[in-house]
């Protein structure tokens, strides 16, 4: 099958199709370097057809294997081969015999074939059957390795010197766990220990790549290697394999044991292989005396984080037995666009990181990193130019909030007061630009794509587009709502409780969820007793303990029974129905749990651990079996919908866009600053696996002197000094090597993104930490200055491309005596942009193929006006207020997202039918936003309220109020309606630091004489005020704690709380003698803590407000 724009195959393509060397030829294998859009899939399809038709070649279809690196690629090539071969009846039957699979499936089948023989050789009792092979997840292996490391340090017999060295090394942070998952030293070590490259290395090939090392490092790294190998052997003897284990197993056991007959092996996307995969595949081909055809593009090797190594592909080019053919013609993109792609790629591949010192570039580490560098290789046009198209093919959009681009101080102050970040402004601009672009070019949404480098950027721009009702399909999302879904969090908490691995927050998650029958008051009471080490009977805890007995024998059964048992605790039918719905939503987690328990070893270890904890009544904190946090469970979102055939705008990461194409591609790069490399870095070199461990920690707690490393004598660091001799900065070459390799891979990411476009490429300015955009950066450069390498790759590409096509540079400053009198010359437009209205002017370059729009600070007012219009309908109206218990009694949950009033259902349905379209256009965004906000609040304020309340200190204001209160509440929760609609999204939630209910006369027992009356705007005597309060009235003493300087804005906040509480007409959970007739008067109190000695006194309405200093240092202001 010919590619879409091919009239015939090129000479190079024909050579690839008809490559068939004689047995005496040196070059027996073929390396096809196919550039983006070069029609490689069409070439491979045509080659397979040619092999099958060409009978003299004696190709047996059953001995023809095609291997790809993704399911999508396998499906694509299978469909094309089937379509092409089915046209010829003579060879149509051959399709079922050709083996087409991913490399993971291919390796799995090979392991399945040779494992029984290997297993039998390891067994003394030959009558046993080999175990069923299981694919297990890496996080399970990491957890087992973590436990093994723990046991190693406890049980290993260190001599006195080794013990001292090891303790010092650990205290220095060598095995430090991070608060952020997957970024700590321990997490990096665990991932390295289960990596096939590390496991495949012999102890002699492990080398600490540093001149001076901690004395414990050499033997610890070898002990860890031995430990990792032991765990690997335990896994495979039980038939449990990770993806890495499969590759290692084949590398070590495939010799002279090839289970298949092979004539030709075709491997697609070969630039994504690593050294072990290449060794396995090439060994098979060699032993079968077969032929190997590999296809790839080294400029699209972007899977280094998966252990892919582009130097595998590059090294084949210089091998004598490999024929190298380049396919450089691009049949995807329009020629005008292709020229600009080549130019953009030139800027990307030519960039050198200016932060790398000359010492590093001359070092061993940089020479190793350079092996991962891919030089630019311009593509050639394979299709004819469309002379009828005169529109721009490349569009650039930049933003800026640079205050200096305003003349007036008022405008400059406007930017500061609104405190809008450039990223926030940019996302809103891009969303509107994309929407207008679609209208202008009258294109379908599914003909467009937004490519990002990271998932978090894709999430942000996806949200901005949803806000303006653009149909979005975010293909970069990892199980969309999994992280924020309460049902999955509660499901994990139930699992941890059954396993005895829970903490207090797990219990709190369960108790405050719809699954629980407990009220907020019950929850707070439970945790208060827990805090005081007092026992309080609790049904949920009792049921969990009962089901632990079942869990020790069948964990999955216990988990399933437990969640539905909790549902049955509800007495109210409506609440029970909602609890059932919530419980049903946990089913996706149950699939993930079942997948974990498919591993016999994991299941046995977990259930034995539960049994040990039950029998011994001990808490084995260091023996956690279940993965944590939730992201390690790979739970699929139940709300996921397949929009594959719908007309939606796709948002993808560049990695997921490989092999795909769109007419219009928007590229939104990330901010270029790299994350820390960590304290444990491993890099594969020609003869060694180089490891550095805690080398860059200058301020570590080690008391031992580093020793000289005899196995490594190269320079490993460079230090810059200040004029006074102090260290200015240290550069650690192993870390810089990793950074250089990531820089080289990022160049290839940019190239991959550019080459997805067929007709138009739109470049969006990436996130910046300052308010200046790329337009501002170019404006700082004058015509006579040279443009050096920028700090980050995205800056290099954008700034140099803009500078090449548009005159944006500033003018030199006037020097000498005339400098004071001369008027400062502003950079050329777009700068002030005051003559423009709704959007900036579209500027074209000389050949009118490049367009540029700069959204400067002049447009920020329009952005805020639009934002205000959208939020007007959401202004808070204090129509009524409810405590949390009131709210729960009056409302019930529906589908976990909405709360509807029990009464007046018909009116609600009527309102919904009238505004159905308007209501649901933006409802998903609101729900997502609400869920995230609820999660943030739950993990912060609510948990603090339930579990972390401490007893008030003596002489504090809280102690005085609690002493005389009828009832006191910590972190009291208040719900208010923000509109007339009875919808959960139309409510607002407030939390008061402390609330006390007092009899008015009890105020006389407090050391306060005066209070400020907000209504009368005057200071009043408290004793006189109390005399005029009716007998059946109670005081709501509201405390708002502050830690900053005394400020008038704090008074507004306490007034807000007082206004909310003025509408509360009862507290059914508080026993009052005259409950039905009680009235409530809110009394507000600002309490500044004793950590701040502030000299300023609050002044309101021209009066100094009365304040009091308590013995513990707290400053008090009272309002009524």
TrEMBL record:
InterPro entries: DNA_helicase_UvrD/REP (IPR000212), P-loop_NTPase (IPR027417), UvrD-like_ATP-bd (IPR014016)
Name the UniProt record assigns to this protein: UvrD-like helicase ATP-binding domain-containing protein
Pfam families recorded: UvrD-helicase (PF00580)
Binding site for ATP: 34-41
SUPFAM superfamilies reported in the protein's UniProt record: P-loop containing nucleoside triphosphate hydrolases
Gene Ontology CC annotation, any one: cytosol
Keywords: ATP-binding, Helicase, Hydrolase, Nucleotide-binding
UniProt GO MF annotations: 3'-5' DNA helicase activity; ATP binding; DNA binding; hydrolase activity
């Amino acid at each position: 099958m010919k590619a879409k724009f091919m009239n015939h195959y090129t000479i190079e393509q024909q050579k690839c199709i008809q490559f068939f060397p004689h047995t005496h030829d040196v070059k027996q294998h073929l390396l096809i370097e196919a550039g983006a859009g070069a029609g490689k899939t069409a070439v491979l399809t045509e080659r397979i057809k040619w092999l099958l038709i060409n009978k003299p070649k004696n190709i047996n279809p059953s001995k023809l294997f095609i291997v790809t690196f993704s399911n999508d690629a396998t499906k694509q090539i299978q469909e094309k081969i089937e379509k092409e071969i089915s046209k010829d009846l003579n060879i149509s039957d051959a399709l079922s015999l050709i083996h087409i699979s991913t490399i993971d499936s291919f390796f799995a089948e090979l392991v399945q074939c040779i494992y029984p023989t290997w297993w039998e050789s390891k067994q003394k009792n030959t009558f046993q059957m080999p175990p069923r092979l299981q694919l297990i997840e890496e996080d399970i292996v990491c957890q087992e390795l973590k436990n093994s490391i723990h046991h190693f340090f406890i049980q290993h017999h260190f001599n006195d010197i080794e013990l001292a060295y090891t303790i010092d090394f650990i205290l220095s942070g060598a095995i430090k766990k991070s608060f952020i998952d997957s970024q700590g030293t321990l997490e990096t070590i665990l991932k390295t220990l289960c990596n096939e490259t590390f496991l495949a290395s012999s102890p002699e090939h492990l080398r600490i790549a540093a001149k001076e090392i901690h004395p414990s490092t050499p033997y610890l790294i070898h002990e860890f290697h031995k430990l990792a190998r032991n765990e690997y052997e335990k896994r495979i003897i039980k038939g449990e394999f990770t993806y890495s284990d499969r590759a290692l197993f084949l590398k070590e056991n495939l010799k002279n044991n090839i289970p298949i007959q092979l004539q030709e092996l075709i491997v697609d996307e070969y630039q994504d292989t690593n050294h072990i995969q290449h060794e396995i595949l090439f060994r098979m081909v060699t032993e079968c005396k077969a032929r190997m055809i590999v296809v790839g593009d080294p400029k699209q090797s972007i899977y280094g984080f998966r252990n892919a190594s582009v130097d595998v592909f590059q090294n084949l080019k210089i091998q004598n037995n490999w024929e190298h053919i380049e396919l450089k013609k691009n049949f995807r993109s329009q020629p005008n666009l292709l020229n600009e792609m080549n130019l953009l790629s030139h800027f990307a591949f030519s960039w050198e990181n200016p932060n790398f010192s000359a010492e590093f570039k001359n070092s061993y580490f940089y020479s190793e990193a350079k092996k991962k560098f891919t030089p630019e290789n311009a593509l050639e046009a394979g299709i004819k130019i469309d002379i009828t198209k005169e529109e721009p093919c490349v569009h650039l959009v930049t933003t800026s909030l640079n205050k200096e681009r305003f003349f007036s101080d008022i405008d400059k102050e406007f930017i500061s007061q609104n405190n809008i970040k450039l990223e926030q402004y940019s996302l809103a601009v891009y969303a509107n630009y994309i929407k207008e672009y679609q209208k202008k070019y009258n294109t379908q949404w599914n003909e467009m794509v937004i490519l990002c480098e990271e998932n978090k950027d894709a999430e942000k721009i996806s949200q901005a587009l949803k806000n303006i009702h653009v149909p979005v399909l975010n293909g970069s999302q990892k199980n969309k709502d999994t992280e924020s879904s309460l049902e999955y969090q509660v499901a994990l908490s139930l699992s941890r409780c059954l396993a005895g691995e829970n903490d207090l927050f797990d219990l709190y998650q369960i108790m405050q969820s719809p699954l629980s029958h407990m009220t907020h008051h019950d929850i707070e009471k439970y945790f208060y007793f827990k805090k005081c080490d007092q026992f309080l009977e609790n049904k949920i805890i009792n049921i969990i303990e009962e089901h632990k007995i079942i869990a020790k024998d069948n964990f999955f059964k216990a988990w399933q029974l437990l969640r539905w048992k909790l549902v049955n605790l509800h007495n109210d039918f409506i609440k029970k129905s909602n609890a059932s719905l919530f419980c049903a939503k946990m089913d996706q987690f149950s699939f993930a749990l079942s997948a974990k328990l498919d591993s016999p070893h994991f299941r046995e270890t977990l259930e034995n651990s539960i049994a040990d904890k039950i029998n011994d009544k001990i808490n084995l904190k260091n023996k956690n079996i279940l993965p944590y946090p939730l992201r390690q469970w790979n739970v699929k979102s139940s709300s996921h919908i397949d929009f594959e055939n719908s007309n939606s705008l796709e948002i993808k990461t560049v990695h997921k866009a490989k092999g795909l194409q769109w007419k219009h591609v928007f590229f939104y790069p990330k901010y270029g600053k790299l994350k820390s490399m960590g304290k444990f870095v491993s890099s594969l070199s020609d003869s060694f696996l180089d490891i550095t461990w805690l080398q860059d920690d200058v301020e570590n707690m080690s008391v031992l002197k580093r020793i000289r490393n005899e196995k490594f004598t190269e320079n490993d660091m460079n230090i810059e000094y200040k004029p006074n001799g102090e260290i200015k900065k240290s550069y650690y070459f192993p870390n810089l090597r990793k950074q250089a390799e990531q820089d080289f891979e990022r160049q290839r990411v940019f190239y991959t993104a550019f080459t997805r476009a067929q007709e138009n490429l739109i470049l969006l300015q990436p996130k910046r930490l300052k308010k200046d955009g790329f337009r501002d950066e170019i404006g700082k450069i004058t015509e006579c200055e040279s443009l050096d390498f920028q700090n980050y790759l995205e800056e290099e590409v954008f700034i140099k491309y803009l500078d090449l096509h548009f005159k944006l540079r500033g003018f030199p400053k006037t020097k000498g005596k005339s400098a004071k009198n001369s008027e400062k010359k502003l950079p050329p437009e777009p700068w002030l942009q005051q003559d423009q209205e709704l959007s900036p002017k579209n500027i074209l370059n000389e050949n009118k193929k490049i367009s540029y729009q700069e959204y400067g600070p002049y447009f920020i007012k329009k952005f805020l006006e639009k934002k205000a219009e959208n939020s007007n309908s959401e202004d808070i109206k204090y129509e009524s207020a409810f405590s949390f218990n009131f709210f729960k009694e009056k409302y019930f949950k529906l589908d976990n997202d909405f709360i509807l009033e029990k009464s007046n259902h018909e009116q609600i349905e009527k309102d919904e039918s009238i505004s159905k379209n308007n209501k649901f256009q933006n409802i998903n965004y609101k729900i997502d936003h609400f869920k995230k906000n609820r999660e943030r609040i739950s993990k912060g304020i609510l948990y603090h309220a339930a579990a972390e309340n401490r007893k008030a200190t003596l002489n504090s204001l809280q102690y005085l109020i609690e002493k005389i209160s009828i009832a006191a509440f910590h972190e009291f929760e208040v719900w208010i309606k923000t509109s007339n609609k009875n919808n959960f999204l139309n409510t607002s939630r407030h939390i008061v630091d402390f609330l006390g209910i007092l009899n008015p006369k009890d105020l006389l027992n407090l050391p306060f004489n005066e209070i400020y009356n907000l209504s009368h705007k005057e200071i009043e005597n408290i004793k006189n005020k109390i005399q005029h309060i009716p007998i059946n009235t109670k005081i709501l003493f509201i405390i708002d704690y502050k830690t900053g300087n005394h400020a008038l804005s704090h008074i507004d906040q306490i007034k807000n709380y007082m206004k909310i509480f003025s509408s509360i007409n009862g507290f059914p959970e508080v026993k009052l003698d005259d409950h039905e007739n009680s009235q409530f008067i809110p009394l507000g109190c600002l309490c500044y803590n004793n950590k701040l000695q502030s000299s300023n006194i609050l002044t309101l309405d021209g009066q100094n407000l009365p304040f009091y200093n308590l013995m513990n240092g707290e400053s008090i202001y009272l309002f009524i």
